């Protein structure tokens, strides 16, 4: 069976409203495609990055940790953090974020785990995003997953994946990449 791939980008807008527009577009596209049941899981790259900073992890360790968390390899997460002499407190948090998913209550739980401004701002932004998604009337399709960490380092904010029954992988992936276009000569925030 032939698989069709398509991309959509919204460039030069770093607002929560732009994030909501992109996610609601995904909902509309899946509904128009006849997908009967689906869910969009939303994470936030800055939450994880802020937590790494708070725990005192260097860039290389963060990169390795991102790969292990993204692959749901919790034994490797635990071993890496032990090898880096990360405190038990942060080891528990990194292992716990994988289980923080669901409704708005999951955001409250995630906020309680961190002390740094970067991660708190990420939660604030997700809460605002949810309010705008409610205006689009798509909240029934939305869940939050703070353990969703992309293996791609260029994501700078909201990341999302859409899942449906009968398919083991995400049918849609995307996120905010506000610095990526700068590598190609145009400084512009973007989500796609």
Summarize the helices and strands and which ones pair or pack.
Layout: E1 10-11, H1 16-32, E2 38-44, H2 45-54, H3 59-70, H4 74-83, H5 88-96, E3 101-102, H6 104-113, H7 117-135, E4 142-145, E5 158-164, E6 172-175, E7 190-191
Parallel strand pairs: 2-4
Antiparallel strand pairs: 1-7, 2-5, 3-4, 5-6
Task: Please name the defining characteristics of this protein.
192 residues; alpha+beta; two-stranded antiparallel sheet; 7 helices; globular
Structural write-up:
The chain is α+β, with helices and mostly antiparallel strands. It has helices at 16-32, 45-54, 59-70, 74-83, 88-96, 104-113, 117-135; strands spanning 10-11, 38-44, 101-102, 142-145, 158-164, 172-175, 190-191. The protein has a five-stranded mixed sheet with strand order 3-4-2-5-6. It is globular and about 50 Å long. The relative contact order is 0.23.
Side by side, the strands of the main sheet go: 3-4-2-5-6
Q: How many β strands by DSSP?
A: 7
Q: Shape from CA axes?
A: globular
The percent range for strand residues is 5-15%
Largest sheet entry? 5 strands, mixed
Query: What is the H-and-E element order?
Result: EHEHHHHEHHEEEE
Give the mean pLDDT: 91
Please mark out the parts with pLDDT under 50 across 5 or more consecutive residues, or reply none: none
Distance N terminus to C terminus?
Answer: 26 Å
The tally of helices reads 7
Class computed from helices, strands and strand pairing:
alpha+beta
Report the C-alpha radius of gyration, rounded.
17 Å
Helix content: 40-55%
**Quaternary arrangement of the chains shown?**
single chain
């Amino acid at each position: 069976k032939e698989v069709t791939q398509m991309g959509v980008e919204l460039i030069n807008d770093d607002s929560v409203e732009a994030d909501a527009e992109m996610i609601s577009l995904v909902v509309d596209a899946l509904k128009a495609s006849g997908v009967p049941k689906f869910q969009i899981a939303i994470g936030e790259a800055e939450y994880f990055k802020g937590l790494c900073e708070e725990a005192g992890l260097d860039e290389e360790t963060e990169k390795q940790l991102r790969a292990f968390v993204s692959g749901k390899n919790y034994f490797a997460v635990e071993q890496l953090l032990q090898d880096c002499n990360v405190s038990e407190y942060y080891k528990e948090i990194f292992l716990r974020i994988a289980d923080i998913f669901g409704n708005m209550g999951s955001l409250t739980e995630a906020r309680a785990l961190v002390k740094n401004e970067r991660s708190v701002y990420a939660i604030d932004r997700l809460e605002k995003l949810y309010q705008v998604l409610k205006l689009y009337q798509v909240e029934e399709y939305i869940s939050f997953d703070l353990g969703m960490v992309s293996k791609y380092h260029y994501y700078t904010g909201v990341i999302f994946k859409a899942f449906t029954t009968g398919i083991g992988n995400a049918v849609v992936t995307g996120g905010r990449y506000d610095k990526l276009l700068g590598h190609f000569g145009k400084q512009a925030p973007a989500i796609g």
